[in-house]
Amino acid sequence: MFKNIRQLTPFSAVLLAIAFIMSISQSTMTTTYPILMASFHVDASTVQWLTTGFMVAMTLVMPLSPWLLDNILLKPLLNGIVTVFVIGTAIAMLTPSFAGIIVGRLLEGIAVGALFPTFQSVIIENTAKSDRGITMGVVGLVMGSALAVGPIISGIVLQYVSWRALFGLFLVTLIVLIVSLQPLIENTHTIHHSKFDWVSAITLIGFGGLLYSLSTISNTKLTITWWLIVIISVALLVVFVIRQISHQQPFLNLSVFKYRGFAPAMILTGLSYSGLITATVLMPLFYQRVFHITPLWSGLLMVPAAVVLSQLNPRAGYLLTRIGLKNLVYIGMVMMIIGYFLLNQLGTQSWFIGLVAAILLEGGNAFIMMPAVTAANNVLPKELVSHGTAVITTMRQVIGAGSVVIVGILVTHFSQIVAIGVALSRTSGWFIFVPVIGILLAMRLPHTKN
């Protein structure tokens, strides 16, 4: 891992370090679900909004990242992003109510949503196409490993101290990091000033409306109000797309879809991310609710999957130039199918089965997500890289957030009629359809090396 990181420029390494710390928080709450459910008397469909709300906030901000890059120098932009994250973390740490944690997580999500496409765009722009595969493999360590490490860290912390210490840990670490690395932050992106399009910004609320509607399907009737939210949300997104196409300086330049290979690669990143995020949600529930394993050991049992993910990400970037995206997708999706199948058929038999399944799900992600991001951006001219990255990260989060919502819905539904172990196994079985769709999509990819 460290050998690959040394290949980055000092500034890219700074971006990587900050993104690593901030992105860990994306999954760190999953291990705390049982504790928070008992402490605040909320059910599974409510507590999962600590993850879903975070991801919705990310999704709302991601389309704005090209505008932020073009209008704010990187150093003040990065410092502002970290400040928002620190404020949100402090609120979540100190609040006496569950609603306060939600507010804090939303602010954290806004910050991470601004950071992810920004740091990926900057790294891609400053890397030659021939080196992007390996470089983005290193970025995959941040996107994947940090997500997998979250439950591990939270499990260790929860074994000895309160859940509030989790937020305190990220708060202190990030403040020390951003202050100490100030001399290394560079303004490498060219500024192109443009007016802020408030109409486009407001229409992005449609993403949140759709995800909210999806999350309430299991515990509410499909009332007129529910349908109104869905219709208004879809209408807002249609207006957003039309405005991006017609606006001279759009938030998102949707001409990226005109480049062959961009769209399928974008969808594949979302499907692979679904496997990763569902693993980090399902496995702590299997370990703690079925096998009654402590939060500490629940987190530690995620270590092998995180290690495998970390090792495979750079290697997958290297293989991208050797065997091409299509073959990598086949490998990754087959691993995910086997992982879900094991959880569905044998998940309640042994915690070791869960450990193997988590390795397969997270390892499969390594062969797909960052190689697909690299392949998608390689077909774009440099001036569209930031827009392509924003589109990819936005759609990836939509699919990921939707996956978390569906996990909550299925687990809540099945647990009302069967034991929790059977409910988790059945939920895993439904997710086999995700990698199957990925394989069907990969069949449409050209047999080329990227």
TrEMBL record:
<keyword id="KW-1133">Transmembrane helix</keyword>
<feature type="transmembrane region" description="Helical">
    <location>
        <begin position="163"/>
        <end position="184"/>
    </location>
</feature>
<feature type="transmembrane region" description="Helical">
    <location>
        <begin position="196"/>
        <end position="218"/>
    </location>
</feature>
<keyword id="KW-0813">Transport</keyword>
<dbReference type="Pfam" id="PF07690">
    <property type="entry name" value="MFS_1"/>
</dbReference>
<dbReference type="GO" id="GO:0022857">
    <property type="term" value="F:transmembrane transporter activity"/>
</dbReference>
<feature type="transmembrane region" description="Helical">
    <location>
        <begin position="76"/>
        <end position="95"/>
    </location>
</feature>
<dbReference type="InterPro" id="IPR020846">
    <property type="entry name" value="MFS_dom"/>
</dbReference>
<dbReference type="InterPro" id="IPR011701">
    <property type="entry name" value="MFS"/>
</dbReference>
<keyword id="KW-0812">Transmembrane</keyword>
<feature type="transmembrane region" description="Helical">
    <location>
        <begin position="293"/>
        <end position="312"/>
    </location>
</feature>
<feature type="transmembrane region" description="Helical">
    <location>
        <begin position="224"/>
        <end position="242"/>
    </location>
</feature>
<feature type="transmembrane region" description="Helical">
    <location>
        <begin position="46"/>
        <end position="69"/>
    </location>
</feature>
<dbReference type="GO" id="GO:0005886">
    <property type="term" value="C:plasma membrane"/>
</dbReference>
<feature type="transmembrane region" description="Helical">
    <location>
        <begin position="136"/>
        <end position="157"/>
    </location>
</feature>
<feature type="transmembrane region" description="Helical">
    <location>
        <begin position="398"/>
        <end position="422"/>
    </location>
</feature>
<protein>
    <submittedName>
        <fullName>MFS transporter</fullName>
    </submittedName>
</protein>
<dbReference type="InterPro" id="IPR036259">
    <property type="entry name" value="MFS_trans_sf"/>
</dbReference>
<feature type="transmembrane region" description="Helical">
    <location>
        <begin position="349"/>
        <end position="377"/>
    </location>
</feature>
<feature type="transmembrane region" description="Helical">
    <location>
        <begin position="324"/>
        <end position="343"/>
    </location>
</feature>
<feature type="domain" description="Major facilitator superfamily (MFS) profile">
    <location>
        <begin position="11"/>
        <end position="450"/>
    </location>
</feature>
<feature type="transmembrane region" description="Helical">
    <location>
        <begin position="428"/>
        <end position="445"/>
    </location>
</feature>
<feature type="transmembrane region" description="Helical">
    <location>
        <begin position="262"/>
        <end position="287"/>
    </location>
</feature>
<keyword id="KW-0472">Membrane</keyword>
